[in-house]
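Ticket #310: bound-state structure for succinic acid.
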Amino acid sequence: MPDTGRTDATKTLNSPSDSSVPLIVVRPNPGGFGAEITGLDLAAPLDPETRHALKAALARHAVLWFPDQPLSHEALEAFTLTWGAFGRDPYIKPLDAHPHVLEVRRDPDETASVFGGAWHSDWSFEPEPPSLTILHAKVIPPTGGDTLFADGRAAWRALSPAFQAMLAPLRAIHSASRPYGAGGFYAQEKGRTGMTILPSPEADRTTTHPLVRRHPLTGEPALFINPVYTLSVDGFSPEESGALLGFLFAHMTKEPFVYRHRWAPNMLTLWDNRCCLHNATGGYDGYARVLHRTTVAGDAPMPLKERGLN
Ligand code: SIN
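RESOLUTION: The complex was predicted; output attached.
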């Protein structure tokens, strides 16, 4: 079971009066960031009410996990498509015959670093980064291998109004170069991992995004920077940029904004890249860890307007 420190607070999002609709139980973490969902079978088609309930839960909690959901690749693909079109997943070879499914894999004897083992938001270097990532657990080690999530909305809300006003108009420069560039991190580790990572000179391209983005569905602002893909603040000197980003990265990943997710085989976890960061942890050398991952296409991040910072 995930280490959620959850309360008994449960709530059903379906209409209790309609006995033909199964009840979905949403069990939020105490802080409201992350929630467990039970009461449905993700391998079966989801009716419109259930989809609506899941979308509402995601808008509120940003990370949702569904225990005990054995899924074929086809069922994972079908569930992904209930959220939108597949996202583009560069730099990693997908499964043969499943071009939208990546295998996140670490073998027991592997010496490479943990894939995704630093705070990031998936593919934030893309002009239209994926809105959601879906990860389905197949093999989970007996210890270690948790995923950390950080809530960029709560981190934004905790800043002073004066600091928010300074950040709101800024743009940040993102690139895949550090991990996936020809001289990047994964190029150095080639051959040491069971995953096929495809470093490329294309990874050196840069994109700018608002440093604070407004969520297209909820309207909520969230800090949208991360230490893997965000290189600098547009227009700032390297020193200024380093100081500001260093402060913000430390702020965003403070304990009150972080949820530690403990996996179990067949658990599916879904998160919103538009408002949270994640970080895969290690601590399971000698054991395998295998999960299957899809993404859902997203939009170009929307800036905050000059007025209405909140
Ligand atoms: C990822 O960054 O997508 C991998 C997360 C994990 O393996 O926990």
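RESOLUTION NOTES: The pocket of succinic acid is lined by residues 104, 115-116, 133, 147, 278, 280, 291, 293 (CB under 6 Å).
TICKET STATUS: resolved
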